Amino acid sequence: MRLINKIVFVGSVLFFVLGIYAYAADAAKIGIVDFRKILEDSNTGKSGRAEIKKQGEKMEADLKKRGAEIDEMKKKYDKDAMVASKDARDEKERDLQTKYIDFKNFEKKYNSEIQKLQTDFFVRLKKDVDIIVGEIGKKEGYQIIIEKNQAGVFYSPASADITDRIIQQLNAKSAPKAGK
Q: How many CB atoms lie within 10 A of CB 106?
């Protein structure tokens, strides 16, 4: 009888402990999001990157034009330097330096503008993604949803990755905006 009591006791303890682990495993639902994939695959990410690229190319074309003007001025200066008076050479040199300084200032300005465009775009995209992640997390009972590249995730099962669902919702959310 004592043996049966011990077996029942051990069985009850195991049942209780395994029940707690099963509950804990269910309660600790974790989701993974790959923001880089959202940036590359979502319509919002693609259009934002295309707009930034377009602006960058426009600025680069302007810089090339300004650079060509400086090169042309430099060639003319070098050609005329031998026959021009010192005052004329000094004036042309000052003009050339001014153009070069203007070029560098425009280059800095354009780099700053591109960086601001990128930052503004990432902030808007992250805000939209955060809203969708919050909705999915609440609706599906996730305890935590982490960003794959920021959290130091080395491995996660595909079932934990909710990136594709976020992309679908983000695309659906941006579709009405595209029609306007």
A: 14
Taking the C-alpha atoms of residue 13 and residue 1, their distance in angstroms, rounded to an integer, is 18
Q: Where are the domains of the chain?
A: 25-179
- Per-residue tokens: 27: 């309660």
Band (pLDDT 50/70/90 cuts) for residue 83 is confident
pLDDT tens profile 132-170 = 999 999 999 999 999 988 877 888 888 899 999 999 999
Residue 155 — φ and ψ, nearest 5°?
Answer: -150, 140
The tokens for 25 are 């495993």
Interatomic CA distance for residues 112 and 140, integer angstroms: 41
156: amino acid identity, one letter = S
